[in-house]
Amino acid sequence: MTEKEKIIVSTYTGILMTDFSKVHEYIEKKLDRPVWTHEMAFESVQEEIKEKCKDDFLDLCKKDDNQDSIGEWGHIRCGQDDYLQCSKCWKSVIDITPHIQMNFCPYCGAKMICNQEGVK
Prior knowledge:
39% helix, 4 strands, four-stranded mixed beta sheet, single chain, alpha+beta
């Protein structure tokens, strides 16, 4: 997840995923005015913030083909064992058989590009 995406998700959900000062700056840009931190406790301001960043948040949710979240399975042989390794998080999955048809990484959730054999 990029820093910008963390800021958007933090702003919309209220769950802080990055530095608060960055979220605060984003909120002020979206509201087009200075925002005091104590204002953020008011329900009316929370609703205004959520409404102003809703389109950005929904755009993130629609990014199904986001190139940043697409990976490839790499085939690794170590002794007698075969592994699939995610090109995004670099974690490996042992025992290729149940994972060949898997179109996402079970660790980071990256969408996987596979050829007919399941490994590119």
